[in-house]
Write a structure and sequence with these properties.
The chain is mostly helical. It has one domain. About 60% of the residues lie in helices and about 5% in strands. It has 19 helices and three strands. A three-stranded antiparallel sheet has the order 1-2-3, with no helix packed on it. The longest helix is centred in the C-terminal third of the chain and has 34 residues.
Length: about 450
């Protein structure tokens, strides 16, 4: 007589992730790319792939932390997860929308035509409901340029995409852990990533893309890059199967692959630079200019091929290799470089900068000739735009974000957590945050990682 034993839940084999200085570093570098890219979009268009980088990083971190939480506690606290996300994400966005609404009211009272309260209310509603990527998605100017021209919060589509991922991932991971379907989830994610990459290569921007009556975000769904988040989650699943001993054996190959990934990532970031076109260097246009060019036959006939058809896929795969290097090889020169304290500081401010930089950018660009300004004006206003972004963001970061981060600690999944407002470890019990005794917190905040002492 044979008997079968039911498989237990999946348990991650990976070492605890800890604090990865390079993650904050690339966030800091990335948000500076955003500031430059939005100021000089015509010249540095393919910097848009830094969004893919953020998505891969978010997918990896969130999924890894969920796997760790289940291993440590035997469960995933869904209420705490959503509370952490709400406290972290909502205050800054709500305040941003409120400020814009006040500006819209003032503009209406003063009859300033360029400030549309209707447009601001539309943007705000889409932003706080996290449906911005459905109604005002990336690439909207190709199919509805008039709608795109009335946008004030065009960048918030990325937060909307991430929030949908946050809605889905904890329950999905929990079910797959309990049923030991983690490998199957990994294969499903991998198949989805390949399918999206292939579809974009054949110039599919989304579903029903030729149906003018379809929601814009559906027609342009593949330009919202869900495959970046999916790849991050897949890498977390792969990582969960790596023991410390196996990582030790793989460290050198990981560095080699990560270094190749860095080169490829740099190519993906720069190959659609309008500046390169002006200098006669290799150049690939990012997207069609408008509805007249928005058809698959025209996009397929474009020579060289539009950057979106391969650039986003190349960017996420390359950064996935880099990510593994940052996590497992913290003595790697890039991990050290990206762990530089100024980069980490900007990385911790990156969410605030990303949300708020659009406010001064809209006004300063409009008052200095708009996107049609001469190259000289565009270059001269760049430092003004960046300085204005920091001037607006710093008060929000220190008086709103840091307080929100302190509240977020109450919903920590672990009994001891890092307080980013002080750089110290704190104890969390029953929603109360208390200091960790000095003898229990030797240097406290920086986890040395799997292969050496702190590098920060």
């Amino acid at each position: 007589m044979t008997t079968t034993t039911a498989r237990g839940p999946f348990v991650s084999s990976a070492p605890k992730l800890g604090l990865v200085g390079g993650f904050d570093g690339i966030r800091g570098i990335g948000v500076m790319m955003v500031l430059v890219g939005h100021a000089l979009f015509v010249y540095f268009e393919s910097l848009v792939t830094i969004v893919d980088t953020f998505f891969v990083l978010s997918g990896f971190l969130i999924t890894t932390l969920l796997l760790q939480e289940h291993r440590n506690t035997g469960d995933i606290g869904l209420r705490k997860f959503y509370a952490r996300r709400a406290v972290r994400l909502l205050p800054s966005v709500w305040l941003f929308c409120a400020v814009w609404i006040v500006i819209g009211v003032i503009g209406t009272v003063l009859h300033i035509e360029a400030i549309s309260l209707k447009g601001i209310l539309e943007d705000s509603a889409a932003a706080v409901a996290y449906v911005y990527h459905l109604f005002f998605p990336n690439g909207l100017y190709m199919i509805e340029p008039d709608v795109q021209n009335n946008r004030y919060m065009w960048h918030l589509w990325t937060l909307s995409v991430e929030e949908w991922f946050y809605f889905a991932i904890p329950t999905t991971v929990l079910v797959c852990i309990r049923r030991n379907w983690i490998k199957q989830l990994g294969w499903l994610l991998g198949a989805g990533i390949v399918a999206i990459g292939v579809a974009r290569w054949f110039a599919y921007t989304g579903f029903w893309q030729d149906d003018a009556g379809m929601i814009s975000g559906i027609r342009l769904a593949l330009l919202q890059r869900p495959d970046g988040l999916m790849l991050g989650a897949l890498l977390a699943i792969v990582n969960a199967h790596l023991t410390a001993e196996r990582i030790d054996r793989l460290r050198k190959p990981i560095v080699v692959v990560a270094t190749v990934g860095l080169v490829v990532w740099a190519v993906a970031l720069t190959t659609s630079f309008g500046l390169f076109e002006k200098l006669g260097l290799p150049y690939f246009k990012y997207l069609p200019d408008g509805p007249e060019q928005f058809s698959r036959p025209q996009m397929l006939a474009q020579s060289p091929v539009y950057w979106f058809r391969w650039g986003h896929t190349l960017g996420i795969v390359a950064f996935g290799a880099i990510l593994f290097g940052l996590v497992h090889c913290r003595r790697w020169w890039l991990a050290r470089a990206w762990s530089w304290r100024p980069f980490q500081w900007m990385g911790r401010m990156s969410y605030t900068l990303y949300v708020w930089h659009a406010l001064p950018y809209v006004f300063i660009i409009a008052l200095t000739g708009g996107e049609e300004a001469s190259p000289t004006v565009q270059v001269l206003r760049l430092p003004v735009l960046i300085a204005a972004a920091f001037a607006v963001s710093l008060p929000v970061y220190y008086f709103v974000e840091l307080r929100a981060l302190r509240v977020k600690l109450r919903f920590s999944a672990e009994k001891e957590a890092l307080d980013l407002t002080t750089g110290k470890m704190v104890r969390v019990e029953d929603g109360k945050v208390t200091s960790v005794p000095p003898e229990s917190d030797p240097g406290g905040a920086v986890d040395p990682g799997p292969d050496g002492p702190p590098l920060a």
